[in-house]
Amino acid sequence: MATSNWAWLPPELFSNIIDRLSVFDRVSCHYVCKSWRKAAQEKPVRQPPPESPWLMFADPNKGCNFYSVADNKLYRMNMDPLPDIRNYMWIGSSGGWLVIADECSDLYLLNPITRTQIPLPSILPLPSITAGSRDHEGNLNSYLIPFHSDGRYSLEYNIEEIRHYLFSKCKAAVSLSEENSWTVMLLFMRGQRLAYARAGDDAWTAVDHGVCKDLILHDGLFYALMPSHTHYIVETWDLTAARPTPIRIKVAKSRTDLGRSYPYLAMSPSSPGKQLLLVKRVRDHENQFEYRTAGFEVYRLDKSGRSARWMRMQSLGDQTLFIGSNSCRSLSTRAFPKLKRNCIYSTDDIWKKAVHFPVETRDIGVCNLEDGTMAPCCPEDIPRLNWPPPVWITPSLR
């Protein structure tokens, strides 16, 4: 009886098969044999069906683990030939892309599924950042950051540790189709500064604004949340314009004062139209490093009256939210029925603890808004490292 050799499938048949595979199964084809790797690398006729967010962990053995909460599956991926991703700082994610800072605090876009890596402009021209000391060969050893607003005093950070102080959050719009374009908005200096860069830019462009609490990306637009004493300001940025200028909405604070809570913006997929959400994360604190998530409050932006305001939502209905330091995303459980409705999946977002206690367990779980209960959202025995802190990422081949 003749044995079949799957390595020699006709190319057109293999392409027909691979177009029906999930993201992870397509990537797995790379490791079967050379002919499958070549076929899998070709541009697919159809994109795989959309995935719900995966929780991405650094693996003790240099690779990455991805946990799908919808399917209760663990996927492991070798990151060769990339450098050890355990040494990177994961600043933000948008879709299937991470914004990372390496050991020299240089920034990159990274798709961990395809391993595509794109260098971003240097941080040195950013406002308030100047070059520090250099070695005998002229290589930069450190950066200087002003300690006071008048700039009279500066703190010196070496090139590896400055990333822990400097970067707060980053969002990226990436399109690697024929135009090979990307746009990144960076929140840095602990929310005091915003800057953006686009494909072809040699430097970041800084923008003036108040202290920024959160930054999200939706349908190509960037949204920033800025609190003041009397109201919030929501800025909307279209960075495809030649000279981007924000559209500002003032929102009364009333009973939505943040206090010691942690705010996130999200865009609801509800119909008709879409609604901007404000999510408040409430924690029980023993001290700045000992805490746990106690619950969430969700508000929607109401612009129907004379002035915009945040309206408390008692339920998300068929929606579910994924939040963390890197992202906040709303999904419909009608589109993703394996996810829990009216729930919030959350990861840890306090960088100070992550930096000072890199091996500590992270504050990860799922909150049921109906009864306020918290529960684990992934198995405790997943092989993982707690540095860099786990992030939500939506796997994509684009």
UniProtKB/TrEMBL annotation:
Pfam families: Beta-prop_KIB1-4 (PF03478), F-box (PF00646). Gene3D superfamilies: 1.20.1280.50. InterPro entries: F-box-like_dom_sf (IPR036047), F-box_dom (IPR001810), KIB1-4_b-propeller (IPR005174). Residues 9-49 form the F-box domain. This is F-box domain-containing protein. It comes from Asparagus officinalis (Garden asparagus).
